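Reviewers asked in the last cycle whether our approach scales beyond single polypeptides. To address this, we selected a multi-component target totalling 564 residues and predicted its structure end to end. The input consisted of the following lines:
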Amino acid sequence: MKLERLDGPERISLQEGSIVSAYICLDLTPYVNNRGMTAITDYEKGTLSEGKSSFPMELLPTNKPFLIHDIPFAWSKTEEHDNIELTGQTLSFEATEVKEIYILGVSSNGDYFDQISFLHDGQEVCREYLYLSDFAATTASFRDRQALVTDYLHTRTGKYELVQPRMWLEQIPFASPCLINQIRLEDNPAMHIFAITLAGQKRGGTDGIYDLS
Amino acid sequence: MGDPMDFTIYYNPYHNCRNMTISAMVMRLGATLEYLFGQAGLFYKEEKNGVFITPYYRSLESEFARSHGIFFHEDKITDANQFITHLRRLVEKKHTVAVMLDIYELPYSIYYRDNHDYHDIEIVALEEERFVICDHHFQYYGVVDADVIQKASLSLVHHLGIDACTSYYFTRPRDYTYHKDDFIRVLSENCQAMKGKAIDYLVQEAAGAYIGLQALEPMKIRITEFLTRNDQRQAAFLYELYKMVKEISHSRHHFHLFLKAFDQEEIAFDFLEAAQHWAVITNLLMRAYITGGYNDVTDRVERRFDKLIEKEMQNLDNMARLLAALTSDSNKKKRYASKEQRVQHKKALLP
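The resulting structure, written as structure tokens, was:
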């Protein structure tokens, strides 16, 4: 899996002695399996909910990366898909010492949480809860925070202005930095992840910001 | 009743449209919602034409009257014109009125002219000849023609077999203060229900039923076997199953709120987890219904059932422990009270 370096001093956040920290946006394209954004011409193709819901693409950030609460994120889009519907996947990436994880996501048809495991070479390092509020909710139900809101929702019948869908920012802090190279998700089809950014660092040197592209 | 514009939508994804509408209506009467939906048992029975699964052992109507001082009034009127007149009259008398409608006939719904299904909305005011409605489930607040209400209520009679146009409303003649004894009663009944006791209206249904924890394994087997058979002709059964399982999830969610309202945060979270497990199964059943991929979800449903069985067992233990602690406290207080009385009595006997 490719880790993408984000250049620019504002995105290289900390320098602690010989260790440089950075935000690393994971490329989730190998794992996306659901469509949560649609253009107005394809409004009926969303699959966030059984009512064919999706975020209107024209109202979402297009720059790469884009900032949410000063955290950089990048979409992972393929021709058909743009988010991970949780079906028990294990996401693999280059080993990173992670201090915090930021996740952009939503739940559909209610607010959901489930376990999320962090692993190194298949061994569980720690386990946490991932909380994501309903995209139709107006306030977060858990510790997650509002990341994005759009003026309307796309559904099977077109623009649906009665709901202003929201995407939520979930921040999972670790008690101490963990060296991990995998994230295991639960099988929970109501939960959707659009982007993951690690606040991570490579051990052993100031030149260690990942750039594996 | 104030200005129609005072009415706000009450959206809650943990209610079906009926309970969402009811919640909005009784909230206007001053009821505290956290106390209303505390029932969280489990009852499963095979029936001639399917299965009956419910987390509830008392009807909402009887529970409201018994424990909250809220009274339910239902009206069934065959003549559609008279029905509209009846609705107008109630709204003029400052009631808000719920109406059972066919979603198929609601132009603002995303299911308009798509499929027939029961749907409840609340009429909150009149605007000349038209009704001002809150459709809480679809988060729609607006004005609709009387014709729409008439057509949509009749459509239920014609397409879904109910006997007459149906509406209901609530009254609450006096305030009712919910207190700790009510909490203990609900906790105790949920505990008994999960231990296998048939309560209230379920007593007469108990023969051949699985109740409480003992229902879980048979339910898992029934549902996974059904999915494995992959009989697409049984889609209607699957949809009913979905709705019943969803209600179990809702019951755990609301019991978690109930527990939180009485400061039982820790055990409340366990019930929220149980609600999530049930909800995941619900969502998988809906996925199977929509896609026809029954077999695709069988293993996933089974795995989630294993997690929820563990959680439900743990939750019953937690409930029993909490109940024992609370009733022991309560008994201690009673004992101390009688000891004081004894001391006073002895003092009174002293020369």
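Chain A has one domain: 3-194. We regard this as preliminary and will revisit it once experimental data from Aim 1 are available.
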